[in-house]
Amino acid sequence: MRWLLALGLAAALACDDGGEHGVDTRAQWERAEEAWERGEVGAYAMWKELDTDTSIGREAHRRLAEADPHYREGVELLREGDPDARHALAAGIALAPMDPSFYLALARACRDQGLSLRAAEYYTKFLTAFPEGERAEEARVELRRLDPQLAGLFDQRTLLPRAPTAPDRSPWLLIVAGVFLGGVLTLTTQTVARFQRTRGVSLERLVAASPEFHPAIAYLVGSLRHELLKHRIGAAADAIAGAPDEERLAFLRKRLYGGQPLVDAWEAHLSAFERALGHRVDLHRDRSFRRAGRAIRRIARLEEGIGAGQPAALSALAEAHRTLMALDRELAGLIGALIRTEVDRSLLEEIAKEVRSEHSAGRVELASLAIEPPAGAEAVALDVFRVDLVLILKNVLRNAILAVAEDEPPRHVRLDAVVELEATGEETVRIRVHDSSAKTLDPEILFDRRVDRGLGLVAAAVHRYGGTIDVEPAEAPYEKRVVVAFFRTFAEES
Amino acid sequence: MTRRDLLVLEDGHEYQEFAEAFLGAHFDVRAAHSAQEALRQLEAAMPDALLVDLRFERAPVGTLVGDVDATARRRFAGDTHRAIRHLKEQQGTLVLGVLREAGCAAPAVFVHDFPARRLENLRRLYGDVHAVPGFDARAIARALGAS
User: How many other CB atoms are there within 10 angstroms of residue A137's CB atom?
Assistant: First the structure.
């Protein structure tokens, strides 16, 4: 089908005048068609730029207009989970490149249908086409939630089938185009690299926008608070209070000026943030970090005065101490409550309802789909974004329902949650999806977190939040259960 | 005032130094840096009080209480690095568990801001447990019944 259309365009090209304008149009068309062949995001714009005063331009615009409703319909149908979406999208793909403004809607439709790999692919393409603006920020957040590592996995060349070779290319044109593209690529790479180096945001913004970094941020903040703010700075509180005697001054000197110099320790913590989070974060953008840095350097300069027990030095130390303790409280507040989700009946019912409303999982006849929230009156919360927890559990539940569909009735599925007390005083919340399918699931594949294998993508998402996923035998009438477990977050925890 | 015997459980020396500087009026201070060392200290004499560091980040893996592989399997999708990190971050509670099993019922204080429910859980598991959010000598002494 598509080669016939290409032939049509080539024929239209042949009908154009043979002058300079015709040669330009031919070269422009060849570049546009090659971009389409490679599945480039810019292909649509290149087609749009073809001059409608030429027959080739008119033909290209006609095909773009004809493809548009197919793409639109395809996205709508996919959003509804209709299998005809594939045909509608294929009809568009056979005609002309997709308008990049569809990519975001398509990405969301794919995501909502559990097609996470495809979703990430279209988020990536949308962001390539529209790197700026409000919708880009939304797309970036959604893609990161899905899985930031996926963005690099996609080869855009796989998106579209290959079209027939464009006719009659001049080698000089190819060389010029190659040099031009090489220049553009170099400039783009340098610009992107410069942008990457300078685009760090404040820690607060990173926490709000990038849940995938929360475990790393929590660890980094925990280390900073524990090792420096609590052990070295916080421990000095008693020694500062009142007029310290010689013993307390000795303690103070040792705590503040013994071992690794305070400034070095502070810088080491800041470097740890940069190493773990790359250039996404720029702590110099945080006023509290800037103040804290100044307070640390001030304490370092007070060594002599503290050693001599000078009241002015002790007073300056007390002020720096207050600044650093303020940072400690701020960090505690920052980490808390941002991503808290309650595991209750309404969450489990929402997941079951959404999966049962899907085209494939909704058609499976079940003898039972039991739902049982955690026992007890007290709320059970997790530090996992609700949208991500829903995504994870929908995938596991969908997998279970589709697995039992392969067996004869009666088919049983159960979604429940239990809380277990650990020897550390922590509690583990185990959300379990039981099914009556005899089909086995290899836990090693789950641990692999390979996005192309079964529940690998789910396992990767669970892992990102510090959780785990496992499969274990279940009591009759079930055969097995997939267990997704996280540490419980206590009400006032930060 | 009767001086009492305080056993400090930590991976470094900071708690011991603090206790000697600020709790010395109430306690004779000794320290253990692992569960094995703490058990040896118990054989010498049962302490009257315990001051416990929660995080043993500098402790060698071989000295940690807790099965790394089992923890990795059950809680961290087979990731032993995360299991080790977890065991180190929570080691103080596990060392306390070992001492309780060995018959030491002395009041224990963590310098940590535990959520109320977690502290309640620790009391359910290990009896007389307290938590003080910072290095506040008076609060620690009070929690250990020495003020």
Answer: 12
